[in-house]
Amino acid sequence: MKRDGGWHGDAWKFLALTATCLLALILFNVSAAGVRAASILGRGALEVRVVPAPVQQGYVVYADSGIPAGSDVWTWDGSPWNLPPGYFDGNYTGENPPEGTRCFKTQSGSGSGNYAGWGVFLCKPSDHTVDLSGYTQLKFWVKVSEDACVGLYVQVQQGTRTGPKSNMLCVNLYGWTQPNTWQEITIPRSEFTGVDFTRIFSPFMITITKGDATFYVDNVRWV
Predict the structure, then answer these.
(1) Mean pLDDT, the chain cut into blocks of 10 residues (223 residues total)
(2) Which fold would CATH assign to domain 59-222?
(3) Gyration radius (Cα) of the chain, Å
(4) How many C-beta atoms surround the C-beta of residue 113 within 10 A?
(5) pTM of the entire structure?
């Protein structure tokens, strides 16, 4: 009886050890098959990374990434009235802009009645519009002197190049506090009147209404 009990005990140990080895072999084969399948599918089983989704800025009008598809930048100044022309550089790399490495530099020509400005217009291949009614604010960065700031105005335009323009909003009322320093301007959409925001042809226009004045703009977007 003792010998039989010993034999049965050894048998159970042997069976348990055999089962453990078989289970380990099965798990190894399943794991290896998974790695082979991952390789076949073009995925490295040990190289999976989770990358955060890019931060959305809303509707970007002007930034280092460019301007909206199907749009162009138009400029204006006092030269049609025989005043000195303005200077424009949409890829200016000075002034340490807040976003990226480039900003938009504008300088009006001399003369008390001179002016200069630019805007982004949805004109390619033909005039078309964008619905901005889902956005609540226009945000952008500006750097300008104190005397020039009170003459710096922003507008939007509806429909086509001959469509109605909004009222002119002076940037010194919407977050500008220091001269010759980058300041972020925030203008509520409700401040713009006279246009239908479901049909915007120009989402941003900015004009300096003084001669011999310089200003810089960066990272224009609707949020």
Answers:
(1) 46 48 42 38 35 62 97 98 98 97 98 96 98 98 88 98 98 92 98 98 98 97 98
(2) Jelly Rolls (2.60.120)
(3) 33
(4) 10
(5) 0.75
